[in-house]
Automatic annotation (TrEMBL):
Pfam families: Glycolytic (PF00274). Pathway: Carbohydrate degradation; glycolysis; D-glyceraldehyde 3-phosphate and glycerone phosphate from D-glucose: step 4/4. Keywords: Glycolysis, Lyase, Schiff base. PROSITE patterns: ALDOLASE_CLASS_I (PS00158). This is Fructose-bisphosphate aldolase. It comes from the Eukaryota. Its EC number is 4.1.2.13. The lineage of its organism: Eukaryota, Metazoa, Chordata, Craniata, Vertebrata.
Length: 363
């Protein structure tokens, strides 16, 4: 007996493609505000704020109440499940606040990183059970796109072939399920910056990981035009003693992408991975000025590198809310310029900026 493959219709494909393009339209990137309860707790603790549902809501409100200046800088906001159903102080649903600005709503749909037996401390990401039903519900509740993060670590023996192929496969399964529900999947295979590896090694591993991801996408018949990639930039490990210029980081990053990411993918939105806000912006700007051809839009999907100043400005005090929102707007504007290769840093020296690195960071 032959059965029909669950293929997308032309209308579904068109819709997915248009949504993906809209999120990364020129000058726009993504605000990743989808920290889980535990990750948000770590952030809040750093500024002396207790990790309660109300405090998490307050901080998200600071970001979401930014005025119209962010409308041309942010194309999508990634929510955590809890935030998707929260409201402002005035009772306006956060989803409505974002959509009213013409910004698309996304949601983190993975259920976190878990150990991968058979490896030395490597991981996979769980959350496929019930994903189809959750996507259907999120779509009804206003989500246009989703995010799933896989994590790979780098040392002398990692990432193993098993971790690379398992994580690639799960990203492809997630992507095909999202697309069945008209949700654009953001594909995030994050290679952690922990370690003392140099730029070359990060480039090599990034190429291996991305090649495996797109092989799996092909096997699962994922419609690439209706996806976005969220990779790490190619950077040296945080304990590497060699310093590289933004131009070297840009060249390594684009070389890796050009060797592995099909031109059918509309956009690449980098994670910041614990770089300082300024460092991440300078690197994104250099990537957009790198003298290599590329078929994709190259922009940001930053979490820490869009929120760190705002969080430090806020520190849980009502009277700081306005200036915290201003800090966020400033970073959104800077990264919008960087996504067009038009940012000239006024802050000067990258190292002068506070790193927001956390070892083996869990989102
Ligand atoms: P960072 O930019 O803080 O690395 O986070 C982005 C993200 O969404 C990780 O999943």
């Amino acid at each position: 007996m032959t059965t029909q493959a669950l293929l997308l219709t032309e209308a579904q494909k068109k819709d997915l493609h248009e949504t993906a393009l809209c999120i990364v339209s020129p000058g726009k990137g993504i605000l990743a505000a989808d920290e889980s309860v535990g990750s948000m707790g770590k952030r809040l603790t750093q500024v002396g704020v207790e990790n309660t549902e109300e405090n998490r809501r307050q901080f998200r409100q600071i970001l979401f109440s930014a005025d119209d200046r962010i409308n041309s800088c942010i194309g999508g906001v990634i929510f955590f499940h809890e935030t998707l159903y929260q409201h402002s102080d005035h009772g306006v649903p956060f989803v409505k606040m974002i959509r009213d600005k013409g910004i698309l709503v996304g949601v983190k749909v993975d259920k976190g990183v878990v150990p991968l037996p058979g490896t030395y401390g490597e991981t996979t990401t769980q959350g496929l059970d019930g994903l189809s039903e959750r996507c259907a519900q999120y779509k009804k509740d206003g989500a246009a796109f989703a995010k799933w993060r896989c994590v790979l670590r780098m040392n002398d023996t990692s990432p193993s072939q098993l971790a690379v192929s398992e994580n690639a496969n799960i990203l492809a399964r997630y992507s095909s399920i999202c697309q069945q529900h008209g949700i654009v999947p953001i594909i995030e295979p994050e290679i952690l910056p922990d370690g003392d590896h140099d730029l070359k090694r990060c480039q090599h591993v990034t190429e291996k990981v991305l090649a495996a991801v797109y092989k799996a996408m092909s096997e699962h018949r994922v419609y690439l035009e209706g996806t976005l990639l969220k990779p790490n930039m190619v950077t040296p490990g945080h304990s590497c003693s060699i310093k590289y210029s933004p131009e070297e980081v840009a060249m390594a990053t684009l070389t890796a992408l050009r060797r592995t990411v099909p031109p059918a993918v509309p956009g690449v939105a980098f994670l910041s991975g614990g770089q300082s806000e300024e460092e991440a912006s300078i690197h994104l700007n250099s990537i957009n000025n790198c003298p290599l051809n590329r078929p994709w839009i190259l922009t940001f999907s930053f979490g820490r590198a869009l929120q760190a100043s705002a969080l430090r400005a806020w520190r849980g005090h009502k009277e700081n809310e306005k200036s915290a929102t201003e800090q966020f707007i400033r970073r959104a504007e800077v990264n919008s310029l960087a996504s067009q290769g038009k940012y000239t840093s006024t802050d000067g020296y990258i190292e002068a900026n506070q790193r927001v690195y956390g070892s083996c960071y869990a989102y």
